[in-house]
Amino acid sequence: MAGKGGATPSTYSPSPTTQKTKSLSFGNDEVLRPDDREWHQCRPAFFQIGVVAAAAGSAYADFGSTKVIVSVFGPRESKKAVMYSDIGRLNCTVSYTNFATPVRGQGSDHKEFSSMLHKALEGAIILETFPKTTVDVFALVLESGGSDLPVVISCASLALADAGIMMYDLVTSVSVSCLGKNLVLDPTLEEESHQDGSLILTCMPSRDEVTQLTITGEWSTPKINEGMKICTDACSKFSQIMKSCLKGFDSALEEEDSNVD
Amino acid sequence: MVLPDASGDVLSEMDVDSFRRLFPLRFFETHLVKSTRPDGRSLAEARETSSALGAVASADGSALVKIGSTRMLAAIKMEVMTPSKESPDEGCIAIDFHMPPICSPTVRPGRPAEAAPVVSKQLSDTILSCGMINLKELSLISGKAAWMAYLDIYCLDADGALFDAALLSAVAAFSHLQIPVVSMNDDGKVVVLSGDHGGKEPVNKGKRKLTLSSIPFSLTCLLHKNYILADPTAEEESVMETLVTVVLDSSGQLVSLYKPGGPVLAYTSAIQDCVALTRQRARELQMILDEVTSGMEVD
Amino acid sequence: MGEDSEWVTPGEVLGKASKFKAGRGAYVSPDNLTVYASLTGLRRILSPPPDSPDQRPTVEVTGHKAHGAIPEPGSIVIARVTKVMARMASADIMCLGTKSVREKFTGIIRLQDVRATEIDKVDMHMSFHPGDIVRAVVLSLGDARAYYLSTAKNELGVISAQSAAGATMVPISWTEMQCPLTGQIEQRKVAKVGG
């Protein structure tokens, strides 16, 4: 029989959908995170540039089980019937592979992330340097392991730098989840599914400027301040890794580094 | 007024890069007459090929394949279905080939690449007809439950010979596939058994790997005049448009042959040459596959 | 660090604006009057010309790949004619200067920009044919669709064309090219070569 086509029978994943984890007791200070990290510790991060030969610039990022590739094309002729513009245009699309999520998805474009990526990067790019033309930033999430958007944003900024697009600064992004009374840096998918609130901070680290701040869920003011502080510190750490990646040095986050808190 | 030969002058003052862009066919022909190609390969030579298994942790089987700059990521996710009445003892395989916008400047979001559905269909036809996988091995409980193997192949970097790279990644992903151990729960649903079996008997004990018989290997060749170029790059494919793809199985038998039109009408002898090149290539690919799968068993 | 210290990435501080001018791959932030890098590459300092009123050295970032060139007014381009209409011809810009562009940019040559003299006598179909390779100058960024190109100079115009018989033609005057196979003469706006 044919393996595919309109008559594909309905299927289901044999994996339990909501993982009843060994009691995620996040309220308890003694307990470490499921992957044994400290609360304010990031996952091991790895960046690489120049991974897609067909693109003008590209980057790969892997934070634990979150893996993304970003390709940059252009500056090139603006497609579609767009208005004439004296400055350049930025066009961003984020999509997922069908196998990115624990339960097989449909791999469609992620409209919300596409627009968030655009807004996170727009302010950092010197659009005046490529009048009338468009720079396309396409991200593909190969595997979704949590904190997907921040990883996509940081990776996209590296790909833009690799493509030689003029920028005011690199853009780094990181998120914290509010879990009970704890703030959890760079949360995994599992931690995100239990969070009471989420804070994503995107900044230009050398210039100390925030390009995007997204806060959802329940937060107290002191918690927001604490969350922003944790994120800013993590962003400056990531920017060091990204810089050494661009300079061609080993770009993996050293374990010792990430343990310092 | 002296006006020397325009084209000669244009060529002499133009650098190689511009000449290649403006007169691609002439550029390639200057290499072909010397039996070489711009990237230094001989005409019959395929690009460096490598494979790595298990690239996607969340999938049941996966592989990354690289042929030159062309890169494919294939992953299989196993789901459960009720088999059809006509074949109660068989599972199913669904194959999809994707060209996301990251892979090529010619693909834009919302406008799928023309090549993608064509390659998708060719892959399905090849994999399902070559007899590599016995669909009976995907059965769980006769008439009640069987596996549906979703194979998704993503092109991460498109530089020609997409079908060849996609097929190799598909084969490698199947060789890496570990079927989850499952049992039937009280609601009649098939669920994955965790570490301790919780008293449940697995329904597919000892059937974690598929037997892969007669593995298909392919080689795409470009025909231009009397030249045959093996394993073309994207640029070569765009300049010279007649492609022939030959698929042979591990025992050297012909599985399929595609020649989707093109300006060159191939003589039988050219087709025979393509088959001979594919035979040689199949041996190389078999070795690459053996190497990565043996590495897996050591783990 | 030695030579590594010369490598910079976007956002790295290159110096104070009071001490340096920003060159290529660098910009000045008006907020704190600091010069920053906008590209990845090697930081270089260029001394000002001795007669310059501004005696600050220029700091620039070079060496790493910058993005592919884009057409700007005044750029000399090589383009392939795609379509010839009564009042204009469309052409795909393939090269900027001597460098090829990765993809292509669309340009148009309007009737009034084909040649410098006797503009009212220009016939587009006697000037260009689809497939011709022309050298042109970018007049302006044009409109939403295309860059405006001009061939109104002696050294601009068709630099390579195929005859109806498929052979590369030889220019025989400013307005004519000849097929080496059939001897047939075709009309073109021919570029003066070697200029």
From TrEMBL, chain A:
Cellular component GO terms, alphabetical: cytoplasmic exosome (RNase complex); nuclear exosome (RNase complex); nucleolus
Domain (Exoribonuclease phosphorolytic) ranges: 41-165, 169-230
Tagged with keyword Nucleus: yes
UniProt family annotation: Belongs to the RNase PH family.
Highest taxon of the lineage: Eukaryota
Residue span of region Disordered: 1-30
Listed PANTHER family: EXOSOME COMPLEX COMPONENT, EXOSOME COMPLEX COMPONENT MTR3
Chief localization: cytoplasm
Stated name of the protein: Uncharacterized protein
GO molecular function, one term: RNA binding
Species this protein is from: Prunus armeniaca (Apricot)
Keywords: Cytoplasm, Exosome, Nucleus, RNA-binding, rRNA processing
Biological process according to GO: nuclear mRNA surveillance; poly(A)-dependent snoRNA 3'-end processing; rRNA catabolic process; rRNA processing; U4 snRNA 3'-end processing
One Pfam family hit: RNase_PH
Localization: Cytoplasm; Nucleus
Skewed-composition ranges (Low complexity): 8-25
Automatic annotation (TrEMBL), chain B:
Top-rank lineage group of the source organism: Eukaryota
Gene Ontology CC annotations of this record: cytoplasmic exosome (RNase complex); nuclear exosome (RNase complex); nucleolus
This protein's UniProt keywords: Cytoplasm, Exosome, Nucleus, RNA-binding, rRNA processing
Annotated ranges, domain Exoribonuclease phosphorolytic: 45-180, 215-264
Location of the protein in the cell: Cytoplasm; Nucleus, Nucleolus
GO molecular function, a single term: mRNA 3'-UTR AU-rich region binding
GO biological process annotation, one example: TRAMP-dependent tRNA surveillance pathway
Record flagged with keyword RNA-binding: yes
InterPro entries per the UniProt record, alphabetical: ExoRNase_PH_dom1, ExoRNase_PH_dom2, ExoRNase_PH_dom2_sf, Exosome_comp_Rrp42_subfam, PNPase/RNase_PH_dom_sf, Ribosomal_Su5_D2-typ_SF, Rrp43
Subcellular location, principal: cytoplasm
Assigned protein family: Belongs to the RNase PH family.
Protein name: Ribosomal RNA-processing protein 43
Organism expressing this protein natively: Prunus armeniaca (Apricot)
Lineage, broadest ranks: Eukaryota, Viridiplantae, Streptophyta, Embryophyta, Tracheophyta
UniProtKB/TrEMBL annotation, chain C:
InterPro entries: Csl4 (IPR039771), EXOSC1_C (IPR019495), Exosome_cplx_N_dom (IPR025721), NA-bd_OB-fold (IPR012340)
Record Pfam families: ECR1_N, EXOSC1
Cellular compartments annotated: Nucleus, Nucleolus
Superkingdom, taxonomy of origin: Eukaryota
CDD domains: S1_CSL4
SUPFAM superfamilies: Nucleic acid-binding proteins, Ribosomal L27 protein-like
UniProt GO MF annotations: RNA binding
GO biological process: RNA processing
Protein keywords: Cytoplasm, Exosome
Cytoplasm recorded as keyword: yes
Domain Exosome complex component CSL4 C-terminal: 100-141
UniProt name for this protein: S1 motif domain-containing protein
